[in-house]
Design brief:
The complex is a heterodimer.
Chain A lengths: L20 H19 L13 E7 L2 E7 L5 H8 L18 E4 L2 E4 L12 E3 L12 H8 L9 H14 L5 H8 L9 H16 L3
Parallel strand pairs in A: 1-5
Antiparallel strand pairs in A: 1-2, 3-4, 3-5
Helix pairs in contact in A: 3-6, 4-6
Chain B lengths: L40 H6 L14 E7 L5 E7 L1 H4 L4 E6 L8 E3 L5 E3 L4 E2 L5 E7 L2 H10 L1 E6 L28 E5 L2 H6 L3 E9 L11 E7 L2 E6 L4 H12 L6 E4 L15 H13 L3 E4 L2 H4 L9 E9 L5 E11 L13 H5 L6 E8 L14 H19 L3 H6 L20 H12 L1 H6 L7 E11 L10 E7 L4 E5 L8 H13 L6 E5 L16 H28 L6 E4 L2 E4 L6 E3 L4 H6 L1 E7 L12 E11 L4 E12 L6 H20 L32 E5 L23 H13 L10 H12 L3
Parallel strand pairs in B: 1-14, 12-13, 16-17, 20-21, 27-28
Antiparallel strand pairs in B: 1-7, 2-6, 2-8, 3-7, 4-5, 9-17, 10-15, 11-12, 11-14, 15-16, 18-26, 19-20, 19-25, 22-23, 23-24, 26-27
The chains are: A alpha+beta, B alpha+beta.
Amino acid sequence: MGHDHDDGKGGCPHGVSRRGFFTAVGAGAIGAATLGRAQAPAAAPAASAGEPTKVTLHVNGRAHTILAEPRWTLLFVLREQLGLTGTKVGCERGECGACTVLLDGVPRYACMTLAFEAVGREITTLEGLMVGEQLGPVQQAFLAEDAYQCGYCTPGQIMAAEGLLRTNAEPSLAQIRTGMSGNLCRCGAYAHIFKAVKRGSELKKAGR
Amino acid sequence: MKTPELYFINEAVPDTALPQVKPEPWAATRVVGTAQPRVDGYERMSGTAVYPSDLVLPDMLHAAVLRCPHAHARVRRVDASAAAGMPGVRSVITGDAAAADLRWNYGRNVFTKLFDPHCRFEGEAVAAVAAETPQQAWDALRAISVDYEVLPFVVDERRALDVGAPALHEGGNRVGDVERYERGDVTKGFAAADKVVELEFRTAAEIHTPMELHGCVARWDGPRLTIWESTQGVYPVQQRVAGVLEMPLANVRVIGSYMGGGFGSKLQADKYNIVAAVLARLTARPVKLFLTREETFLCVGNRPPANMRLKAGARKDGTLTALEMTCTGTGGAYPAGGTSLVDWLVRDLYACPNVHTELTDVYINGGPSRPFRAPGHPQGAWALEQTIDALADAIGMDAIELRLKNVPTVSQTREGRPPYTTTGLTRCLTEGAKAFGWRDAKRHPKGDGPVKRGVGAAACLWVAGSGGPPSTVIVKLFADGSANLNMGASDIGTGTKTVMAMVVAEELGVALDKIQIENADTATTEYATASGGSKTVPTESPAVRDAALAVKRQLFDLAADELKVPASELAIDGEDVVSKKDQKVRKKIAELAGFRRRGVLVGVGTRGPNPENKVVNPFAAQFCEVEVDTRTGEVRVLRFLSAHDSGRVMNPLTFESQVIGGVTMGIGLALTEQRVFDRQTGKVVNRNWHDYKIPTAMDVPADITSLPVAPPDDEANTTGTKGLGEPVTIPTAAAVANAVHDAIGIRVTESPISPMRLVALLTEKRAGR
């Protein structure tokens, strides 16, 4: 790989990037909150933050109805209530992207999304990228390129890459950088992550 | 002087039983040295790997710790009555609780209470809560009322010894005596120099911030305690917890089979382990206690800041005549090696007859430091490698040439000046420079526009990286030819499990996917020291090889009877045992009748001693190219090349991952990372990843080349390996600083090279100041 230059176009137009996060979450949170209210049963009184309330979430193609406190984040519900620990907890304040999931196919920080905001949305986690027991194409690509070290940020990286590739099947290096910029890796695997996203793009095209 | 043994307890170098045989070095390898994806890649990619923070146990409670919000304070009174009655709260403990009346050792002989009324840094533990949900635990923390006597503080180590500075401990703010080192006579050395340069440097404190938060799950079964801990070493945690709770080691089980990064901050137990254990005991429920991200910026370690003055002299031909360094640093509020090893490179990287160093370690009201990837070394390299460049400029010599003039063959600091097994420094510098295109790159125009280009280089060694005893490993070969590898070592993301499986595959012909690995569990896996100090591969891989060879000997004894060939004439070829003399005489391992009757062969391996009177150190040299925007002060790193003498490359894929990871982390030290204290309050103002900036995908080059230059170090150990994980990050920041200097002619002596700092320096330069 030679020197890379920013083509200025950026990547992942609908996803989160670390730098564009605040504008994204501003609009997204308002939108989701409005949607959440619109879909709540008309008779339901406003629940207090700590009061267990029935909620149905669609995760990886299955509906889960649970009692959740309105203040619970999607991250907390996925990990501690549904046992889907592929989604990791890194900061709980929208900085690192370890908790990245797809909401209707778009990367979102699950720590900055209340479970109630995800009602009516299709939630996809790392587990949802599996093809039965087999790794999906982006997971295979990360494994093959050794695009991880401790592996803790990796589920989030994979979800960000998946989201990027769903909107841009053949991203340039600059677009990959932007698309992956919402996900920190303290082990510093970025150079291999860039390669993995490229390989993931190829594997997806080849239908693996 | 004694070799620093950073990672061992009580400064004792542990021992291990000797291996039964000393095998010949591998002449040719079949698996070792090939690029292999990780053996636990599936688990990590699919999400089935259960990290300690992923654990959800039946009936589990969640705990949280209340921490002192002041840099320096005394707790007068804690009122937890309101918290205790809140929904979901099952236990609240404060300093007054009998169960919390425990001693905590902060290093050396400094003991405090678990919840000590004297809080010497922001983030010290004051109370803790266990509740049904984490949200309820946090609510309860907010309901605890603490009456603090706020005390005067000092958070700037440069002010800690001033007259009138608040004293953290009885006897003042000095941590022991000034540490002095001297060889030769620097006064004479400087007199003999044609040129002398003298510069002052500072590196800011860095925070480890591994992706997985620090924390654990604790569960009691009667008298037995199990802790699932995100750790680099399960045994050190077991020892510490058992010590504090006065329990038999056997009754404290620590499990850490997966962990999400540590970089030195997870080499030891923490107060939170004790808090979780106490809360689990009081509630008779499992307790999960993971810190918040903010807490990890305050109380689980840091790389100490270093204030360094360095003076260096050389003759016109490039011969170094004298080096003199003074450094003031701080390990925070307790003894934690605030200046540990900062001078090591000055003392040992280059041949120099006259060296004098002085290290002053002081207390400040900051969180205690912990070893951080190559303790002391990146700081020392920042000063030394920039000074060497300045010296090269002063005598008009190429910076690489100057370094090559002064490559040592012996460790000058250690007693008796023992030789290195290999000194790959020359090869790192010459082969690295060639592969990077150093000479052409130096001649490359800097650019006429506002954006300037420059190249820089820096070199290093790492004081440890030899590995050594103790380590015990067990390899089991099942009758179908598949194997089990049992070792205590943690895989902290370096690929330890993969490399060790490759050693088993090499010796026993087992395919990697037929090797099951158990690791990092004090109840079921063998003794290992913590994974740190770049020592895991050179420590564990010879022990694994020894265990595999023990299995092989038993296998050949069995096969000798059946094949009618002496055991000494047998070899393994794929899945077969074969006669070395006649390749047609062979039998599948899985079909050996004697083996099938036996069911399993068990081999115990240990790590033998390191060579006597020799020093095993890894060496490296790094080269980089940067772009500096003179309008904004922004620095872009365009490419990096990292040349290494780390002995045998076990797995080029994971080797390269270490290199890019180390370079990336070093770019953080160079350009963005710094802990900032508020002058008014002594509080850390950037306790999150928005304000404390670690490199992102936007900040690092895609072009990072890993260049191993050295052959296996067969004198070092039976796998010919040396450490890698730390040398990869030692010279990085200095190389970036040297490249910035090459680009714009400004030597940035204080880290990080932030746009704000650089713009100020550019403005000064333009004004001719």
